[in-house]
Structure formats: C-alpha cells, structure tokens
Amino acid sequence: MSAHYNPYKKYTRVWIPDPETVWRAAEISRDFKQGESVLHLCLEDGTPLEYPLGPAGNPMPFLRNPDILVGENDLTALSYLHEPAVLHNLRVRFLESNHIYTYCGIVLVAINPYDELQIYGEEVINAYSGRNMGDMDPHIFAVAEEAYKQMARDERNQSIIVSGESGAGKTVSAKYAMRFFATVGGSANDTNVEDKVLASSPIMEAIGNAKTTRNDNSSRFGKYIEIGFDRSYHIIGANMRTYLLEKSRVVFQAEDERNYHIFYQLCASASLPELRDLGLASAEDFAYTSAGENIFIEGVNDADELDRTRRAFRLLGIKDASQNVVFRVLAAILHLGNVQICAQRDGESCHVSGDDEHLAHFCRLLGLELPQMEHWLCHRKLATASETYVKNMSAERATNARDALAKHIYARVFDWIVAHINLALRASSERRSFIGVLDIYGFETFEVNSFEQFCINYANEKLQQQFNSHVFKLEQEEYMKEQIPWTLIDFHDNQPCIDLIEARLGVLDLLDEECKVPKGTDQNWAQKLYKQHSSNAHFQKPRMSNSAFVIVHFADQVAYECAGFLEKNRDTVYDEQINILKASKLQLVADLFATEDGGPKSARVNVRPAKSTPRPPNKEHRKSVGLQFRSSLHLLMETLNATTPHYVRCIKPNDDKQAFSFDSGRAVQQLRACGVLETIRISAAGYPSRWTYVDFFSRYRVLMRKSDVSCPDKKSVCQTLLATLIKEGDMFQLGKSKIFFRAGQVAYLEKLRADKFRAACMVIQKTVRGWLQRLRYRKIRKSAILLQRYGRGYLARRYAEYLRLTRAAVVCQKNYRMARERRAFLQLRRATVTIQAFARGMFTRRIFQEFMLHHKALVIQRCVRGWLQRVRYRRMRRAAVVLQCAFRRSRAQRRFRTLKTEAPVARRLTKLNAGMENKIVQLQIKMDEQGKDYREQNEQLLRANTSLGTELSRVQQQLQHLQQTRSQQGGATAAAQLTTLRAELEALSKELEGARAHESQTEERHRTEKLELTRRVAELEEENALLKSQKEELNQKIKQQSNRAQEDVGSALLRAEMDAERRRYQNLLKEYSALEQRYDNLKEEVSLAKFQPGHHRSSSNQSSLESDSNYTSISTSEAGDADDVLQLVEVSETCEVGADKAAMDIGIFVKLQKRVRDLEQERKRLQASLDKMDEVARNKDSVDAAAVAAASLTEEAAADLAYNNLKREELELENRQLKEHLEELRRSVGQEAPRDGYHVLMSQLKAANEELDARKEEVVMLKTQLVSAAPPTHQQVLETESGERVDAVATLPSDRDQALTLYRQVCQSNKLMEHELQSQAHQHGQEVEALRAEMETLKGDVGRKQEALNYATSLSPQALLEYSVQLEITRLTDDNLDLKELVEKLEKNERKLKKQLRIYMKKVQELQASRGGSGGRAKSDLGRHVTLQRKEKDFEGMLEYDREDEPLLIQMLVTGQSSLPPHASCLPRACGEEERRARVVQVGLHRVRWRAERKGARCWCFADMRPSMLSGTVPCLPAYILFMCVRHADYVNDDGKVESLLTATINAVKRVLKRNEDFETTSFWLANTSRLLHCLKQYSGDEAFVVQNTAKQNEHCLKNFDLTEYRQVLSDLSIQIYQQLVRIAEAAIQPMIVSAMLESESIPSLAGVKPAGYRNRSSSVDQDGGQGTPSGGYTLRALIRQLSLFDGIMREHGLDPEIAGQVVRQLFHCVNAVTLNNILLRKDVCSWSTGMQLRYNTSQMEEWLRANKLYQTGAAQTLCPIIQVAQLLQVKKKTSEDADAICSLCTALNSQQIVKILNLYTPLNEFEERVTVSFIRNIQKQLQEREAGEAQEGAVAKEASQLLVDTKQTLPLLFPYAPSSLGLETLHFPASLGLHFLVRV
Question: Is the dihedral of CA 1386, 1391, 1396, 1402 positive or negative?
C-alpha cells in the first residue's frame, strides 16, 4: 500500500457504535487529517455528526466494505474483517436475500428463520452431493457433504459440532445433517439402518425436548450420535451418547414453559383403549405438567405426535408391550407428582393420606407395595456403624425426596430408551469409520443462573478451547503449505477459565468436597470459593451478594446463584425407595434399577430371593453429578480431538420467534458467545484474504501494463503488479499457488481497480459527450440552413405567384376580347348559312318531285308488260302438256300389249334369278372362309416346311403303305371314291371361278360400305363417349350418396368378409405348411434310412403325400414338357450316389406314375381332335363317299378309345399294386433282418422292371395307333410310280392346322419316349449297382453285429454295460460324421440346383419372349412348375431348434455365461491351436476365453458381451432370431417351447442388465426388447397391427398362440430397461452439467472474478488442475460429445427413433434440472455474464438437436426454464415496467424461483446496480396475483410451490408401435454367431 494512502477521505463510508442498533453506518463528509480530534460524518438520514477521536474519545471508526462485497457467502471474503462488517453482512443476507446460512471460515453460521423453507428436499441433497464446499451456497448439507467426503478420502473419523443457545435451531440442523447421511450413505442391504437413524429423532425429541420461553422444541440434553459406515461408506449402524439431561424440568417448569413432550402426548391420548389403564387425564390436572401454566404449543397436535413416536418405537424394534410398560412408568411419574404429603403438627414429620388415589395409581402402574411406598415416602433410614434406625422427614424434605425420586425414575427411563435405541442401531458388521453429530447447548446466561447453566457454560468453554486450537492449527497448516513465513498469532486462550472450574481445588472440586460434608450448605461452599479464588482473574465476587459468584467466560461474565448447587450435585435418592422399585412386580421396572449403570437388562432373568439380605450402600448414588458430567465431557473431548471437526453455529435472530426478524443486539451477543468473532479475529490477525494467481490476474489485469497481460508467467506478472501497487511488503505474501493479503488490502486494490474503471469511464464519457455536442452543433447548423432555405423559397414562391397572376390577367383579357369578336362573327356566319340552306332546299325539292313522277311512270309500264308475257307463257305450256299426254298414252298402250304376251317367260326368269343370287351369296361366304383358312394354312405350312422337310419322305412312304393297304382291302371302292372326289373337285372349281368374279364386285361394295360404317362408327363412338362421361358423372353422384348411407354397413360387411377370407387363407397356409413339413421330414427320413444301423422308419406317408397332396413338389410336378423331364433327369444324375440310391425305389414308381399321367393327357388331346374331325366329316351331306369314310374312321377311333380306356384302367390297377408292394417293402425293411429286406427289395425291383417293360410296349402300341389314325385327317401329297403329284383331300381345308398340330405332337412324343427309355435304362443299371453295393454293406454290418453279439455274451454285466456305452458312443460319433457329410453334400446340391434353376428361368424367359403367344399353355405349365419348385425352397422366416439347445441359444444371444468343454459344438470350426494359445475366441456376441481347470481339463468360458460385433449386420438381429424361433414353435403348436423360450429370454436379459450396467449394453437390449415386442405385435394377426404389413408378412403371422401376456411382460421389461438406460446416462452426464453449463467459459473473457472466501480458497479438494475449477472441469463441447456418443450408440443399435428421442428429452430435462438447481443454490453464478454464457450454451444444445434431427422430440422445450433464467439475469431490473416484463417473460418459473434468483443476483462490479428490495417485493406481489388468478382457473401445478426441480423426475414414457418393413425370409445371420444348431425352415 502506498505510504501516503489515507483511507479516511471524503465520501468514505464507516461504522460507528450505536446503543440501539449496535453499529450504525455513516459517511465522512470532510477529509481527515492526521492529528485532528474530530471526524466529520454524515449519517444515512443526512444528519451531520462530529465523531470525537483521540485518547479521550473513540478510536478510528471501522471502514465499510465496498457494495460489491456486501452479501458474500463467506465472511472471510470481506476486505475489512470486523464485528460491524460481519453483522451487516449477516443482516443483509438474512433480511434481503432470505439466506439463513453463511460461512465464516470453517464455521457455518445458521440463523433460525422461524419459518418453513423449501431448501431441505431430496433435490437439494442431490444437488449438494458430490460438490465441493465452496462451489455451492452455504448450507448444512454442504458441511455434511464435506464431512462425508473427507471421511472417504482421508479415512479419518469426522465430527459435526452443532451449538447455540436454546431456540437457535440446533436440533433441526443436526436432524438435517443426519438426513443427508441417511440419503447419501444409505445401507447397502435391506436393513434400512438409515431409516432407523432418522426414526430415533422423534423419540429423543419426545423424551428430551420441551417448550421453553425461547424455543417450542428445545433440547434439554446434549447428545452425540456416531453414524457408522462400512468400507463402501454405507451406513451400517449408529450409537448415541447423551449428556446432562435437565432432570429438574420433570418436577418444575418456569412460567410459559412445559415439561417434556412425552407427558403431554400421553395426556392428549389418554382416551385410547390401550392407555385407559394409565389413569391419565388432562395435563392441567397434574402438578408436573401444569407448573408452567401453558400446556399447549401453537400448531402442534400432541396426540398425532404420540402416534409418530410410537411408529418410531416400532421401527426401532421396541415392541408394543415394552412401550406400554414405558408409558406406565411415565404415567406413574405424573401420579407421583400429585401425591399429597401432609405435615404433622410438630413440623418434623409428615404422612400421606391413605385414600390418595394418585399414590394407588403410582403403585399399581409400577407394581409396588402400597404400604411400603406410603411409609418410605415420609421416612428415611439412617445407618451408623453399630445400628440402623428409621427417622421421620418433614413435609418439605419428603416433597424434595418425592421429586428426587421422580427425577431419578425419569432419568432411568431416559437411559433405558437411549440404550435400546443404540441396541437397535448397533452395527451388524465391522465399523470402518464414523461421523459424529454433536447437538449440544450453547453458552447460556439468564437473570438467575444455577447449576445447569454452570455445567453448560463449562462444556462450552471446553468446546471453545478445542475450536480455537483447531482454527489456529488450520491457519498454521495453510501457511506452511503455501510456504508463508509463520509468525505466532495471539488468540484468546480460555485455559485459565477451564482450570478455575475443573482443576484441583477448583469450583467442581470444592463443590464435591462440600457435598461430602454432612452439614454442608451452599453458603459454606460460597465462602470457600471466595477464599480460594478471590485472586483469580476469571473469578469475581458480587458486591451486593454473599451467595453468588461471577465467572468471566470467553463469551461474557455470568453470575451464578449458589442456592441449590449442592442438592443438584448430590442428586440424592434414598435407597429405601430404590429398593421398593427394584422389588417391582414388573420385570422392566425392576431391571431399570437392578444394575448400577441403569442399562437395559431385559434379556436377563433376575431371580430375587424371598428374604432380602442387607447390602452395602450403592456407590453410584454417592457419585456427584458434576463429577459424572466432567468425566463424560472429557470422554467427549477425546472423541472430538480424534476426529476432524466441522462447526455449525446456530444464531437466534430475535426473542419473539418472528419470521425473518433480525435483532442486532441479540445476534452480536451470540456471535461473541459462539466464537464466530474470535474466528474473524484470528483470521484478521494474519492474512485473511487469499487469491489464486489465475483469479488475481483475471480480476486485476486492468491495472497491468499491456505487455504484462500477454505474459504467460502469471505469477511473475502478479508479483510485479503487487510490488508496484503495494509499497509495504508486509501487507501481502506470495505463496506457492496463492497470494495472501492483510485485512483491507483487497479493498485498496478494489479501490484502485474502481479508480481505473472510473478514469476509463471519464474518458469514455468525455469522448461521448464531445461527440454528442458536435452532433448537436451539426444538427443546429443543419436546422438553421434548412430554415433559411425554406424562408428564401417562400419569398421566391410569393414573387412567382405575383408574376403568374399578372400574366393570367393579360391572358384573360386577350381571350375575352377574342371570344367577343368571334361570337359576333359566328352569329353573322350562322345567319348567312341558314339563308343559303333554305334556298338550296327549295330548289332541290322541286327537282326531286320531277324525278319521282318520271319513276312512277316507269314502274307502271314494267308491271303491265310483265303481266302480258306471263299470260302468253301459260297458254303455250298448257298446249304442250296436252300434246305430250296424248303421245305417251299411245306409246304405253303399245308397250302393255307387248309385255302381256311375254309375262310367263319373265316370271320363270325371275324365279331362276332369285335362286342364283342366294347361291352366289352362299358361295361368297364359303369362299371368304376358305380364303381365310387357306391363307392361315399357307402361313403355317410355310413355317412347318422347314421342320418337316426331313420327315416328308417318311410320311409319303407311310401314306403309300396305307394306300396299298387300303387298295388291297377294297381297291374298287377306293377308285370309285377317287373318281367321285375328282368330279366334285372339278365342279367346285368351276363354281369357284364364278365366285371369284363376283368376289371382286363384292369387295368393292364392301369397301364402300366399310368407309360409310367407319364414319358412322366414329360418330357413334363420339356420342358413346359423351354418354359415358355423363354416365360416369351420374354414377359418381350415386356412389357418393350411397356411400354416405351405407358406409357403416359396407365397412362392417367388408371387414367381416376380409376376416373370413383371412381365416380361410391362414387355415390353407397352415395345412399347406404342415403337409410340406411332413413331406420334407418323411423325405429326409427315407434319404437317411441307409445310415441307421437300427430301426428304419417307414416312408409310406411320403408315398401317399406324393400321390395325394395338392401342393406338388419337384418329384410329383404335373408339368408335361420334355424340357422339365430332362431337367429332372439331369438333376438326378448330378446328385451324389449316396442320396439317390437310398430313394431309388421310390423314384422309379413316381416316374412311372408321372409318365402314365402324361400319356393319358396326350391321349385325351388326340381323342378330342378325332372327335372334332368326325363331327366335321358327318356334316358333309353332299359327299356320300366322304360320309362312309368318316363313319369308318369314327368306328376306328371309338375302338381305339375303348382300348385306351382299358389300358388306362389296367395301368391304374397296377399302380395301386405297385404302391402296395412299396408299402410291403418298407415294412420289411423296418421290421425284418437286413438280409430278408434285401431279398424283398430285389424281388420288388425285378417285378418293377418287368412292369416297366410291359408299360413301355403298351405306350409304344398306343402311340402307333394314334399315329395310324392321323392320316385320314391330314391333307397329304402323294406321288405315284410315274412321278405325278396327286392332291388328296380328306376333309375341308379348315382342318389342316389341327392335323399339323397332331402330327407335331406325335413326333415329339416319339422323341420323348426314346430319350426316356434310354435314361430309364441307364438309371436302372445304376440302381442295380447301388443295390448290390448296399447288399455288400448290409452283409458286412450283419457280420460285425454278429461278432459284437458273440463278444458281448462272453462279458460280465459291468463290462457289458461299459462295452454297450462304448459302442453307442462310437455309433453316435459315426452317425454324426455321416450326417455332417450328408449336410455338406445337400448344401452343395442345393447351391447347384439354385444355379440350374436360375439358368432355366432365364431360358424360359427367353423362350417366352421368342414364342410370344404361340406357346401359352406350355408357358403357363412351365411357370407353374417353376413357381412350385421355388416355393418349396423358399425360406419361410422360421428357425427350428431342439428343446435341448434352448440354453445354448440363450447363452449365445443373451447371457454369455457358460463353461463348455473343448469339443463343444457351439465353438467355431476356425478355432485352432493359435486361438487356443491366444486363449480368446469370438463366439456369437461374446468373447470366449480358454481357461484351465483344477484337474488339468480345459473349458471355454464366456467372458463378456460384445454388442459391437453386430454393427455390420441388421439392427436388432437377436430379436429377429428369437422371434423366428418363436414362430417355429408356434408353427409346430408347441406351447411349452414358446413359454420356455420367452421366459428364459426375459430372465436372461434381466440378468445381463443387472450384471452389465453400461450404456452400450443397456441400449442394445432396449432396442432388441422393443423390437421383439414390435414383432410379437406385428405378427400377432390383430387388425390394429397388420395394417402396414405386406402380404408376405401377413403370411408369417402366428397361427396357434395369443402372446398378449408376454407382450405385456416385454412392455414392462422395456420400461425397466429404459429407466436403467436413462439412469446410466444421467449418471454419466451429471458430473459434466454444472461445469459445462455454468462454469466453463464458452465465450472467453466474459465472466469476471470476484473476491473469493475461505471455502473457495481452501476447499477439501485441491483445486490445482482438479475438477473444482473450470480449467480442469468439463466443457460444453465435452457434454455435447457425450450426448452425441449416446445418440450414435442408440442409432447404431437400431433403437426406435421415438424411444431415442424420449431418452434425449429425459437427458435434457436432467440438464435443465441440475443447472437450474445449481443456479438457485449458488450466488456466484447469478450474474449478467453467467446469463450470457448460459444463453449461448443453451443455443448450442438446441443447435445440436437440430443437427441430429431431434428437435421435434420436445427436448428443446425442457430447456425453457434455464433459457428464461438466462433472460432474467440479462434483463433490466429497475422499474415497474421491467417487473411487468419479467412476469410476462418467466412463465416456466414459479414465484419462489424468480424471487430466489433476484435475491441471489450479484453485480460483478460496482458500476452495476443491485436489485433493490422494493423491486423484488413488487415482483413477488405480481407473481402472487398471477398465481391467485391461475388458482381460480384451476391451473395451478402441484410443483408450483417447490423451489428446486426434481432431478429424479421421469417424464411420461410412450412406446409407439413401429412395425418393421424387413421380411423375415430375407434375414441372414453370420456364421460367427455360432448358431449352427438353428435350422432355417
């Protein structure tokens, strides 16, 4: 500090003493100069004051702190540390901000608000849990968290010392501290120890608390509760120790006070049935409860409190019977107080009335003898060395003895209850550490102070000594840690006062000595004190009293009255009365007094002898209370010294119990008494202000040079700055990480900083004001110029107006004169024109009249001449007509006579003409048809010539042979027919030529008519289109009207039809699937029959299935094409020999059946063609020979048809015989020995071969007959021997196409039969060889089995059993190998068949494209065949597994917990020696480890889950696999399998999630569980879920089971997993939220740094690079990165976007809640800069939501409260308009939160104004009015009264139905999953 610096200048604010308010604020009105005796001040009300200084006056007044420091959380952060600063800071925080907690170094000062505050909920506990003590606002939870954290970190026991006078809130503070420990360190098991610890509070309050004048619930005892923790720092138990119970309150209470609560609770509940036996009444009826004359407490229901106490008893394990006994003892105490002791006349004796009902109740309740108790209440026993005698007691002494007995009984009951509470709270395991909570009375001083106040103040002296030493020790450690030179700080040591009390010949020692004197009195003891300690500085004798003494305590001087000290110290209870109690009939009452320590002995059985024996006096009753208290106090101090203490000082703000009322006098008195000011003094004596280099640099860099600001070495820069600013080196010290300042130095630096800012502000103001003045001058100058311009313009405009008016007058005159002259001229001209017009009109009319006369004459002449000419014309025309009529009549008469003679001949010709016309029409029609057919036949013949060229010669030879045969049979008939046919042909040729001539004419006429018809058709089409459009409109209207009327009915009918159709379709699918599965199973059994050494299963079902099934497979397809047959043959040839040989007998009969059906179909087609030709032949009535030939052909066809039907019946009969033989063969193979089966097989095969040959011959004969019947239907070209060509026509040309088709089919059939016979012969040879090989194999098997049988008969039973097991293992191993080989072969064949199928499909498509519509039938047949083949091979979306593989399936997909042998089939084949050496192999979703067992065996052990291994596959693949397994179980109708699989899956998922609580695993199983739930819904068949399904997905719906219950279970499981996922995510981001949202500087250099207090400077966690500072904490980028990681994991796992959005929304709610709670609990973040940072951070969070397309999830809305908080921190807070704006802006915040933030708002510098109290009150009033209006509208939320937001709140959860578009049949899972035991179905 500068040497010439004078702090007492004008405008400096100071504190001066005041008798009323203790300290009063003032301001220096004139600079103070050294040597002046008066300081000129001005009070706050403007009153001037001359404050005297100097030796005769006052010292220099205390300086006030800057306004920016007022209201600090920590008193040590104040620049000036003194009593008025501390008092003012507490007053401002308590009254203006309603903050009841304030730090004072290591002490937490708690002011009792006398009001319920919402700052102790679970949300507040969660907010303080895990936080450093200086990070949050002061709170009792912060102290508890600090103790808990230090216990865990330092492994040292902790203590929380809560002290204060009565009514200061000690009990409540201790209770909340224990609640914090119970919540944070809850028990790890289900013992609920934390609940029991909390339950002890209402019990102890009932038996140890009472109403006093200062407090309604004052603790009248001290207690120390040790809460034990295990190694995991969970509560395992507790123990309670009590100190100095105020027993005198049991028998006496001051005015307006009460006895202990339990008595009033019992009296209030006296009407309860279980308490009626106690004989209680109102509390006013008992002397012990009515002494204070006020038995009620406002707002407290004693009956309800008793219920609460009894519930706490039960929770602690104290049974109702024990409770009733305790209540009996307490009621007996009340009755004992009402026992009337009457004095005798002599005054030395007394008696109790015999009918005293209270004494009777007392004895009855305690089980005592009434006469004995009545006697010993008035007598006592005196024992001497030689004899014992009974002495009467006076009434006063008897009353005292009665009261002493009552106090003793209550003390024993109190101790018994405490002991049982400790027993219930006893730790069940070893206690590792504990935290003690000491709730003890504070320093007390009253008008009359007695023994209790002496003990209390003695205890506070000891605690103050321990506190001083601890504070001194902390200061020393801090200086040594920072390597600051240590100088001894002088502090008040109260050891002399303690020695005065407890040293040898001290107060307590003399008191005990006086108590031992038989005739000792209080006055004698007082005289001894005066004599012994009169020279002690801490002991004084009052001037006006000889029965009192004064002790100078650390807090104040206290005068104690000696009266009653000896009696209270002795605590005399007569042995006779105790012995009566020991003899109680109630075991618990007897146990209370049976032992010296009064501990609980309920578990012991005390056997009392019938006759009592004399015993020595009880030494316990001779031990003084003072000695006991001193011993327990020393034990307490040893415990506290062995722990790390934390101090809570409770302050009582006023004596009237008014809410938020502050009495400065009472507060200062308590601050002095509790040691807070001593802490301030110790801190102020050293270096109270401490800054880190970074904070100091940030705060005071404005005082540095520009070059120093950029220097990286902050420490050197700070050192240079301090050396420049503070000249005195002793005013600061530089530590390793901090700078230490003397008191007032920070204020000096703040002044320099403020001066710097003030100078800068003056520069800014100067510049701005100059700029404003220049701006104003420019504006004035501009205005003057503007005015001049407007003035000059006005004058110019006025002169211009004059010129315009002058010019206008001249123009008007000119125009007027011109108009006048013109008007005269026009009038003259008008008269002249009128005269001329009349004259010219007269002349013109005359000429016109002459012209009209001449014209009329011409008209008359024209009419007359025309009439004359017309008369002449009519006359001449009549004459001509007459002449013509006469001529024509004569010529007609001549023609009539000629026709009359020719009439017969004409009539005959007309008849002939009509017949010819009809004939011509018929011929024309026939010619048209023949021409059309001829053209078509020519086209077909041209196409067929190329293919029939090679066969033409052979056909001609056949025709010649046929002609020769016919000629031999009837040559003459054939020649006659040929001649007739040729004649007819010639006649027809002639007619054809005539018809062709007529045809040309007809075509021309047809062409003309066609054009006309085309035009007409076009017109009709247009008209039709118009009508159609009108019809459509009408139909549309009708449909709309009908739809409205029948919509409901139609939809219901349609829905019913669809349901019925769906059921029918599902039934068909079910039957088809069952049949197909049955066929596959039988086929597989037959194909594997040769590998079974034992029983062979019959394949009769397969045979019947192939012959009768409606769903044809490859072997039973009905395709008749040769290509298909060849394809089947090729496929059969390419298959492996093993599989073909096993089913060769089946294939032969199946192929025979197929060929028989093909031939039968071909025969039917030929028969239909023959019938058509026969019908055509019969219609030819004109040719007799043709009719005869047709008749003969029909007879032959009929004969052939009959023959073919007969053959077909024979073939069907033989087919049935073959089936029977096949059944016999199968039975023989399954039942008989292998050799017999071989013979049967060979015989059946031989018979089949013979039958095949016969069928071949019959087929050849049938085809030959069909071919022989074909020539009469064809047009043949014959060649005679001479080479002449002859056309032979059997029928009309229209049958030529059919004949060619039949001929082509016959040729194809021949080729097909030849190829088929060859292939069958080849197959027959292969079958014979295969059967021979099988015969040899069977022979070898029979031989080996015979040898094994002979060997087995020679073995013993034990060896035979082992040999059988070995054989079975060998057989199973061989079968397993064979099956694997067969599976590989089948897979190879399957791939080959699929390849061939693709090739054939391609060929079919090409053939269809080339042939077009010509091969329609073949196309449809082939397509049907291919479709059936593919349908058989399609994957139906099911996975088959054995029931034994279910645990393996669950292990591979879900749990991963298994130990398998090395040969386990689930391990991958690639697991070789390298993987075994590496000891880790990937199997399924798990990593499998190779480990060694004890006996050398090795096994595979699943290590952990690997959901990331499925990142490249379909999301939620395990869910799909499990559902496909469920589908197969449903398909086979196995309800047990479905139930077992789903139950095992659900349980396994629960185990996995319980074992692996990480986000990735939880997200993975949430996605799979929800997907499995969606699959169960999607494929359930319910209408609500199948709307979006495809047709294929609807086919895959479940058929047999309704899994609604499992859907509900999976839904509940999904909710549980969701909650666990949210809990894991919240636990991950919760440590980041505060640092990222509030502490990290997202906008650099925006936040300012304020002076920090002791807690911020010396937290329990070292902040150098730790998380306590923003530099070491989390940033917003880290938080967003963590959220992005969560979102990426959920997307990768395929979690439904709706669920993922709800997770993000829940996390944003957590961010909002934690951030808002921290703002409400931290004053340092309630500033304008924090609001700016918070708004920026929330905008970044919203931007992240938009970037990840999550904004629509509603997560952004959850940030509304903190967004409004940011706006509230930034908005103006001064005027009423600002208040209205705030009320309308902060709609998401309740009134408490808004007021709390306004109270916490802290300016960062002195240039920013504080929020005034009046503004806050205005805001509060408006908010209350708003809430009242909302309450009237019924819109008040339940949480409106809550201050903090519940961070554990779970937002409403909804799992929307999200069907999958993925088809189950398209799913493929990688082989790496190890699920080879699953079979795709």
Answer: positive
pTM confidence score: 0.59
**Structure tokens that stand for 1543 in this block:** 């139950």
Question: Residue length, the chain?
Answer: 1881
Cβ 1442 vs Cβ 1877: under 8 Å: yes
Can you tell me the distance from the alpha carbon of 1041 to that of 93, in angstroms, rounded to the nearest whole number? Answer: 78
1707-1710: list long-range contacts, CB under 8 Å, 24+ apart: 1707/1622, 1707/1625, 1707/1626, 1707/1629, 1707/1683, 1707/1755, 1708/1741, 1708/1755, 1708/1756, 1708/1758, 1708/1759, 1709/1758, 1709/1849, 1709/1851, 1710/1626, 1710/1629, 1710/1630, 1710/1633, 1710/1847
Record the tokens describing residue 1844, joined without a space: 């903090």
CA distances from 1114 to 1316, 1320, 1427 (A): 17, 18, 10
Report the range of poorest mean pLDDT among 108-112, 1632-1636, 1666-1670, 1773-1777: 1666-1670
Q: Please state the three-class secondary structure of 1580-1628 as a single string.
A: CCCCCCCCCCCHHHHHCCCCCCCCHHHHHHHHHHHHHHHHHHHHHHHHH
Total Cβ atoms within 10 A of residue 75? 27
The Cα 1007–Cα 1588 span in angstroms is 59
**pLDDT surpasses 50 at 1548:** yes
Give me the pLDDT at residue 1034, please.
67
Query: ∠1217-1221-1222 over CA atoms, to 5°?
Result: 115
* Closest listed residue to residue 936, CA positions, set 1199, 1294, 1428, 1187: 1294
E strand or H helix at 163? strand 158-163
Helix extents (H) in 1412-1451: 1416-1433, 1446-1450
pLDDT at residue 799 in the model:
93
Which secondary structure element, helix H or strand E, spans residue 1310, and what is its range?
helix 1296-1353
pLDDT value for 1077: 64
| Inter-residue contact 176 to 120 (CB < 8 Å) | yes
> How far is the C-alpha of 670 from the C-alpha of 1296, rounded, in Å?
133
Q: Can you say how many angstroms the Cα of residue 619 is from the centroid of all Cα atoms in its chain?
A: 70
Instruction: Report the SS3 class of residue 1138.
Output: helix
Provide the 10 A C-beta neighbour count for residue 1373: 10
Work out the burial of residue 1698: count CB atoms within 10 Å of its CB; fewer than 13 is exposed, 13-18 middle, 19 or more buried: middle
Query: Can you give the C-alpha Rg of the chain in angstroms?
Result: 62
pLDDT, position 827:
93
Summarize the confidence of residues 365-384 as an average pLDDT. 85
CA dihedral 1225, 1231, 1235, 1239 (to 10 degrees): -20
Return the higher-pLDDT residue of 350 and 485.
350
Report helix, strand or coil for 1288: strand
Angle at which helix 83-91 crosses helix 664-674, to 10 degrees, equals 120
Question: For residues 370 and 362, what is the distance between their CA atoms, to the nearest angstrom?
Answer: 9
Give 1773-1786 as a 3 state SS string.
Answer: CCCHHHHHHHHHHC
Contacts 24+ apart (CB under 8 A), 215-219: 215/166, 215/167, 215/168, 216/297, 216/298, 216/300, 216/657, 217/171, 217/261, 218/166, 218/167, 219/166, 219/170, 219/171, 219/439, 219/441
Token pair recorded at residue 1361 = 């059993």
Q: If residue 1880 lies in a helix (H) or strand (E), which one and from where to where?
A: strand 1879-1880
Mean pLDDT of 384-389: 74
Distance of CA 726 to the CA centre of its chain: 60
Structure tokens at 377: 């209440």
Which residues 6+ apart lie within 8 Å of 1116 measured at CB? 1106, 1107, 1109, 1150, 1154
Here the tokens at position 1419 are 């196309």
Nearest to 228 by CA among 151, 167, 298: 151
Residue 1178 has pLDDT above 70, yes or no: no
CA distance linking residue 1791 with residue 1820, whole number of Å: 7
Cβ contact 99:138 at 8 Å: yes
Give backbone dihedrals phi and psi of 1740, rounded to 5 degrees, phi first: -65, -40
Task: State the Cα–Cα distance between residues 261 and 208, nearest whole angstrom.
Answer: 8
